[in-house]
Amino acid sequence: MDSDIQLKKNLISRIKSSKDLNFLRALQTIFDSSEQSLYELNEQQKKSIDIGREDIKNGASKEHEQVMTELKEWLKSK
Asked: Hey, where are the domains in the chain?
């Protein structure tokens, strides 16, 4: 069987069996964004991206897990 067909079958199976709504929403976002045409960024957007890249380069960023932990703690305090 072709590897692309097997990959699709595997993904379909995993999507069907997933009960993780956040994961499924993330997949939906990926599919939606892949279907949209490319966007033209304005100068402010380009500048913001450059700042973010510079922050990452300088270690001024956090791991996803750390952000999620902090967010959960913040939500508990509300």
From this structure: 3-76
- pLDDT tens sequence across 20-39: 999 999 999 888 877 665 67
Alpha carbon distances (Å) from 51 to 16, 48, 55, 58 = 39, 5, 6, 10
**What dihedral do alpha carbons 23, 28, 29, 32 form, nearest 10°?**
170
41: tokens are 């960024």
DSSP summary character for residue 63 = -
* CA atoms within 13 Å, Cβ hemisphere of 68: 4
| The one-letter amino acid at 49 | I
| Interatomic CA distance for residues 68 and 51, integer angstroms | 22
What whole-number distance in Å separates Cα of residue 73 and Cα of residue 62?
16
